[in-house]
Write a structure and sequence with these properties.
Low-confidence stretches: 82-86
Strand content: 15-25%
Largest sheet: 8 strands, mixed
Mean pLDDT: 93
Number of helices: 7
Distance between the termini: 26 Å
Shape: globular
Order of helices and strands: EHHHEEHHEHEHEEE
Number of strands: 8
Radius of gyration: 16 Å
Structural class: alpha+beta
Amino acid sequence: MGVAIRTASAGDRELVVRLLDAAFQDDPVSRWVFPGDEYRRATHHRLMAAFTDIVLAEGRVDVTEDGTACALWLSVPEADDHGQDTGEDDGLARVRAAVDPENERVELVGRLTGEIHPSGRAHAYLWMIGVAPEHQGAGLGTALIAPVLNRCDREGLPAYLEASNSRSRKLYERLGFELTGRPLDLPEGPRMWPMWREPRS
């Protein structure tokens, strides 16, 4: 049975934020950025809202018709550097100021993942994929990602992501992603895996 998928609009913002907040509450990276369950429950959704706003404005959000899963994609153009210019640094600082000004990890995780993001070749960047906790393990992640990867294959476009836990890493490996470079070990925190997928002919 197929999964109906559509492109989210601004009217879906709250749905996407709720999905991401629920899906990542227990994620190792979210737990590192917002240590403590009560603190995370009170604050985490603001970071998910910031991410949603960025991707709604600059990329594309795919959502299942039943509202149980979403994927956030950005198109990264060809470039000669890592894109770590003053504008991006300012953007990370603005996100921190809006989300949780006293929490330097909000900004730090963006800086560290930006430093390992591959430069040079244009690619599709899977920023986040969120599945409602009660629907995880049902294949919705694969259903959301596969059409984009098929399009990447047709267009000869690579894809990139950072896996934030070992379970998602295994999913991405099944879809053709491979570890690129060294894993990122967050300071006194969990590991993230930068993963790259060459287009298939």
